[in-house]
Every structure is written in structure tokens, then in C-alpha cells.
Amino acid sequence: MEPLMSATTTAAKRIGILTSGGDCAGLNAVIRAAVHRATGYGWEVVGIREGTQGLLHRPVQYVPLNLSNVDGAMMRQGGTVLGTTNRGDPFAYPMADGTLKDRSDEIIGGYHELGLDALIGIGGDGSFAILHKLAQKGGFPMVGVPKTIDNDLGMTEVSVGYDTAVAVAVEALDRLQPTAASHQRVMVLEVMGRDAGHIALAAGIAGGADVILIPEIAYSIERIAAKIQEVRASGRNFALVVVSEAVKTLEGTGVKKLLQGGEKRYGGIGDYIGEKIADATGAETRVTVLGHVQRGSMPSPRDRLIASAFGVHAVDLIAEGKFDRMVAWSNRGVIDVPITDAIARYSCVELDSALVRTARGLNISFGD
Ligand code: F6P
């Protein structure tokens, strides 16, 4: 068994940990694992509040983390005990007067004020791009732990949060199926995932969908309607359709909601597809938009395992002096890769992947 290194084998350190970008299930399990491993080394851990925002505040917003406030309950807890933000790039920070200001030096100052020896950032590609830039500019050691329900980060087979999001979407399909059958309806389920169709594809297969629409495959309403007719001809009186939020309309535009302040956010493609199916087939359709329910759930066992393995490995990287790297899942184990490679390689659904072939083998339609 690998011996647990102690304070006698590595110099005492004070490490910081933060969660950045959209939350997901499993973040607390990463924090817990990192605190356990760091404590084993005899190190101190501080949790920085609300991503890089905590380093921007004066006094810096943080909480000391140790085995008395990090317990097994965190493994089960959704969200992040540290808080997070997906706003405010510190290199172009939106100010109250509407201007953008470079506030990166303030964040780097916050890092040094805490007297940290290294930082663990739990984030997605956007957060990593910012953290990498900050670490380069500030000359501080950083390692990354990938999290995103979208599972679109390159260089890792899976990111923390994805498995739980798929489980939530499958549960939704399990609940939609009986009501679809009772009312002879076509049920459309809109799921998240941004430009990658991973959630829709996995949930659609596991949840017995008839049609899965993903941004990577162009659909036609005629092909979807033909599939619904095929289902009817087989004697079944209902159908399940899963739509990924970034699927484009027939005119090629993404469907987004305009919010107060001019911001646009995905949402509405389910209604669009539902109406088109009703027009083309005469079927009664109903639409469910799953939204943030996919993020806030209790983490699945697999997410807890991956999060724990990632948290331990991230601390080990610091012990080994390996920085600017991201922990990653590969071939049943944890590896680490240059963080810049992970940012550069966006991972969408490959058209020749096992799951696309599986879906086709199951006669699920992609509408193509
Ligand atoms: O990237 C994760 C994600 O949940 C996407 O799937 C979704 O489009 C987006 O974040 C929602 O962001 P927000 O929490 O800002 O609404």
C-alpha cells in the first residue's frame, strides 16, 4: 500500500481551494477529499469563498477547512459550501459604471495575503482559462479539478457533476413515460449541456427515448415526424423526445431567452420542437424543461467516487511539485494533464462514439 506522506516528508504548506463557474453535484466531495489528503500531509487548507470573488474582497473572504468542519455529510451534499460565481472575468471586470476593469492584480494580491503555497481550482474550461492566466501572471502554483454537468472539458473522460445530471434526466424520463402513455402524448424533455449533447445522449439512451436531438447532429422535423409515425405504427401510443438546450432551430438559430439587462441564456428549444412535432404529426405534445434541477441534486455514487479520487490526486500533485495541471479520468483511473490542453480541446459528442452507435443500434432517431 502506498505510504501516506507526512509533514516530515513534505514541507508544511498552506493551500487554498475554490470552486468556480456553475455549481454541480460532487463539488463538496472534492473539497472533503482534498482536505483529508492535505491533512494527511500535515498541511493547512483554506477554502476561498465564491470563487475568485473571495480573493477580490478586502479582507479576503475565506474559511479554514480541517477535519472538524469537513465531514462525511459533505459527500452527500449538492452545491458548494464555498459558494461560486460564473460572472466577472477579473481581467475585464464589469464595474458599476458600466466600464470593464482589469482587477487581476487585486486577486493575485488576495492570494498572497492568505500566504498560500498553492491553489486548487475546481472549475470548467472558462474558469480554468482565467485561473491559468492569473497563476501565470501572479507566479503562483495551481492545479485544476474538472467539474461540469456538460462534460465538455477536453482530456478527461468525465468531469465531476456529469453523472448526477444524467441520473436526474433519466429519472425525469422515467416519470414522464407513464404519463405520456396514459395520455397518448409525445413528451419533450429539454436538458442542459450547452454546445455538447452528452447529457441528452446518455439520458436519452438510458431513459428509453425515441428521439434524441443534440447540437452535433442536424435534424429535420420530417425525420422526427417519421419516427413518431413509426412508433405509432408499431402499436405504441406515446413517444419520448430528449432535446439538448443548444440544438438550433430549422433556420439555424439557437433559442435563447432575453433576460433583464440584455443577457441571453439558453432555454426554449423544447417548446419550439414540441410545437413543430404537434404541427407535423397531430400528436398532443407536452414539454418539460429540466433546468437547474440537473445541477442541484445529491451527487450520484459515481460522482462521489470520481470527486474523491480527483481531490486526493490534486493534493498529491502539489506534494510532487507538479503544477499547471488538471486531474483527469482515464481508463478507470486518475491521471493528470497540462491544464492548457484541457482548455484547448473542447469535448463534444463524437459522431462515431460508442454511445452514438448504441443509440442508432437501438433504433433511436437523431432526427437526421
Ligand atoms: O455549464 C453548465 C450549465 O448548467 C449549462 O448546462 C447551462 O447552459 C448553464 O450552465 C446555465 O448557467 P446559469 O446557471 O448561469 O443559468
Label this structure with key terms.
12 helices; alpha/beta; disordered N terminus; 2 domains; 368 residues; binds 6-O-phosphono-beta-D-fructofuranose; single chain; 37% helix; Rossmann fold
Strand order, largest beta sheet: 3-2-1-6-7-14-15
Ligands bound, unique: 6-O-phosphono-beta-D-fructofuranose
Which fold name is given in CATH as the topology of the largest domain?
Rossmann fold
CATH class of the largest domain: Alpha Beta
Q: Tally the helices: what do you get?
A: 12
Percent in strands: 15-25%
- What letter string, H or E per element, gives the SSE order? EHEHEHEEHEHEHEHEHEEEHEHEEHH
Shape: elongated
Distance between the termini: 52 Å
Alpha-carbon Rg, integer: 22 Å
Percentage of helical residues? 25-40%
What is the strand and helix layout of this fold?
Blueprint: E1 14-19, H1 27-40, E2 44-48, H2 53-56, E3 62-65, H3 73-76, E4 93-94, E5 100-101, H4 104-113, E6 118-123, H5 125-138, E7 142-146, H6 162-183, E8 185-191, H7 198-206, E9 211-213, H8 221-233, E10 239-244, E11 256-258, E12 264-266, H9 269-281, E13 284-289, H10 301-320, E14 325-330, E15 333-338, H11 339-344, H12 354-361
Parallel strand pairs: 1-2, 1-6, 6-7, 7-14, 8-10, 8-13, 9-10
Antiparallel strand pairs: 2-3, 4-5, 11-12, 14-15
Helix pairs in contact: 1-10, 4-5, 6-7, 7-12, 8-9
